[in-house]
Specification:
single chain, alpha/beta
Length: 147
Amino acid sequence: GRVDIVVSTGGRTGIGKEMVESLSKQTGNIAVLDMAKPTYLANNVKFYECDVTDPEMIAAVAKRVRADLGHPTVIVNNAGIARGNTILNTTPDQFMLTYKVNVLGCHNILREFLPHIIKINHGHIMTTASSASYMSIAQLSQLYLFF
């Protein structure tokens, strides 16, 4: 059968960490793309420093992932940031960084890895989103615009 290769963005902490740890019990083909190294030990996981807002960096990291593991067929878009600021206390630069990571980051990752999935007509894409999109949380109002 076919062996799936997993790429997970934002797999260092939180939901991403839990998914990576769970998946690592089932496969040895996992690449974690994040800005900082994981703080946990998961077997069969390769870490790649990667800024999902930078398409050139993603392309370079994708080349390394393909050389190390092969073409990814499972994409987990999990990278995200949240800020504990009100709309009025959020600067335009802070807002744009949140948007670039939470929205454009998913787009950038898919532009890099989706063509192979389409070519072989096999793959899975999962994008996580904050529960803040379903509830009103003080000082997280900027997230509502993304989900």
